[in-house]
Amino acid sequence: MRIERRLLRFITVTNWILFCAVTICGFIFASWRFAWGILAGGLIVTINFHLLYRSLKRALTPPHLANTGGVLGKYYIRFLASAVIIFVLIADHYVNPLGLIIGLSVVVTSIFITTLNEIRKIIFKEAA
User: Residue 22 half-sphere exposure, CB side, CA atoms within 13 Å?
Assistant: First the structure.
């Protein structure tokens, strides 16, 4: 269980650092609509990631083991709410769609960075 907590903490920290760095760079180097797209997409995906973590933690921690229907129901409600928010942001031209996609990629990128970091640790551990 210790490894999972370490990985989750690394993903969370990397996620926030990447989110802040990309958003700041967006506001410095890009148009306002593009930067707001990065900010909105990053917030949507980060909030969803943390809500999913909370839902799974509550559902899988004894003695409050929840049924899968409740967990999946919450997941689909969050997914639908996210889809509506993204639709409104793009349809009403509040944000640049490319900036939104970059923002929505923050959590996936942080998971990818974490994976590369763990592979690096395994390779260098074997080499030593």
Answer: 26
Q: Which domain range does residue 36 map to?
A: 2-127
Alpha carbons 78 and 83: distance in angstroms, whole number:
9
The pair of three-digit structure tokens given for residue 34, joined into one six-digit string: 């593009």
The whole-model pTM stands at 0.86
The residues, any chain, with a CB within 8 Å of residue 31's CB and separated by 6 or more, are 96
CA distances (Å), 77 to each of 52, 54, 70, in order? 11, 15, 11
Q: Of 90, 116, 99, whose CA–CA distance to 29 is shortest?
A: 99
> Is the confidence at residue 126, as pLDDT, over 80?
no
Domain count, the chain: 1
